[in-house]
Design goal:
The chain has 344 residues and is an alpha/beta fold. Helix content is 19%, strand content 23%. The chain folds into two domains: 156 residues, GTP1/OBG domain (Spo0b-associated Gtp-binding Protein, Chain: A), CATH 2.70.210; 175 residues, 3-Layer(aba) Sandwich (Rossmann fold), CATH 3.40.50. It is built from five helices and 14 strands. β5 and β6 form a beta hairpin. The chain binds guanosine-5'-triphosphate (GTP) and magnesium ion (MG).
Length: 344
Amino acid sequence: MKFLDEAKVYIRSGDGGAGCVSFRREKFIEFGGPNGGDGGRGGDVWAECVEGLNTLIDYRYQQHFKARKGEHGMGSNCHGAKGADVVLKVPAGTEILAEDGETLVADMTEIGQRVRLAKGGNGGFGNAYFTTSTNRAPKHANPGLEGQEMWLWLRLKLIADAGLVGLPNAGKSTFLATVTAAKPKIADYPFTTLHPGLGVVRSDSREFVLADIPGLIEGAHEGVGLGDKFLAHVERCRVLLHLVEGTSEHAGKAYKLVRGEIEAYGNGLADKPEIVALSKADALDADTLKTQVARLKRAAGRTPLVLSSASGRGVPEALRAILAEIEQGRVEEAEQAPAPAWQP
Ligand SMILES: Nc1nc2c(ncn2[C@@H]2O[C@H](COP(=O)(O)OP(=O)(O)OP(=O)(O)O)[C@@H](O)[C@H]2O)c(=O)[nH]1
Ligand SMILES: [Mg+2]
């Protein structure tokens, strides 16, 4: 399945059905009163967060979603039926934004979450409704109310606890493949990864979700390479694992370049906790390793982890560091959450 992380959709809820003007006409029944039924309510448009989706690709093929109209009221006090709803099924992590692309309408983060995006129009009252003591035979009914229509943006921001960032070829996908059951494409050319991938890491009997995204290059925030929009997929992460290729020319420069792009992207990404690791340690001789570690340490302002997905060196340490950050995040979240209401 192809990946799509942004889509624009048009939605319209159903119009309400019109009320009916009708009078009871039966043999032997004199003065049959008004009996026009009310119109039915128009259908609503809902968004629902469902399992098993990780892309918005379905919205490339269908962009218009209209709920059905309510049926008109009929004689003999028959009310019109409610129009059928439509439901937009979206993957977990989808933000629903207004047409301006900024105003958040809903954030779909939990499987099963349902949000009404547009309410169907109310049905009109039939003439039976308007009967009063002074007007025993009203000859008018209401039309139904119109449904609402709007354009919305769907934007997917995958939900992961930790995210991998780095230059192309830094070994991000290889790391994901080493620590999870995910099978990302791995090759020794840049931009092997075009779409983000997720994997579940099980370590020390705990679990977390790790996201692998495409590589960043200089000028990504101006659209160079694959741009930097895919960074949205690590926006929800608690911690970033920044891999710096040990075999690169200068690990310190490589680190700074990526940091520069993360800062240019904004959205709070630069403030996230970051674990820095020098990757592909197995491919370096002792001297080069030492130099690269020293350069990276100077650039990052702390001692980097030394990592090799090939030999497994440093992998448990990296996972432990990530887990510690995630735990820390959970503790902070629990502290910030309002205390539960008092209950007897
Ligand atoms: N020797 C060695 N090679 C590695 C290691 N990790 C990755 N590689 C190789 O480095 C190349 C790039 O690896 P990827 O995992 O595709 O790199 P990436 O960061 O995902 O690259 P993009 O998806 O292009 O951004 C592949 O040929 C891997 O086999 C490692 O620990 N040691
Ligand atoms: Mg990759």
